[in-house]
Amino acid sequence: MASAFAECSIAFAIKCVSIAKMTKLICSIPERLDARLEKLAQQAKVPKGKFVRKALEQVVRKPRVNGIAFDLVRDLCGSLKGPSDLATNPKYLEGLGG
């Protein structure tokens, strides 16, 4: 009975690990960037290569924002207090070029 229990415990302790196929990427980076990556990887307690992979994954997954500047700040319009004719009244535009 004891040996059957031990075998069962060992079977549950084994984890299935799938390793994704990886390719090597070689690039040159400034020494200061390398030092920063090394420090951040140490703080995260992971190898530098793994840290860089995770950082690249975040950048690649993040959707790029395209569009005109107004589209990017549309939600801010009207959020400030002040004169409603700030952009059109010549009184407020004095000294700004033009």
Quick summary of this structure?
With 98 residues, the chain is an all-alpha fold.
Which key phrases capture this entry?
98 residues, disordered N terminus, mainly alpha
Would you give an account of this structure?
With 98 residues, the chain is an all-alpha fold. The chain has a domain at 26-64. It is built from five helices and no strands. The protein has helices spanning 2-13, 31-44, 48-61, 69-73, 90-93.
- Topology, number of strands: 0
Order of helices and strands: HHHHH
Radius of gyration: 28 Å
Strand content: under 5%
What is the mean pLDDT? 78
Largest sheet, in brief, is: none
Distance between the termini: 92 Å
Summarize the topology.
Layout: H1 2-13, H2 31-44, H3 48-61, H4 69-73, H5 90-93
Helix pairs in contact: 2-3
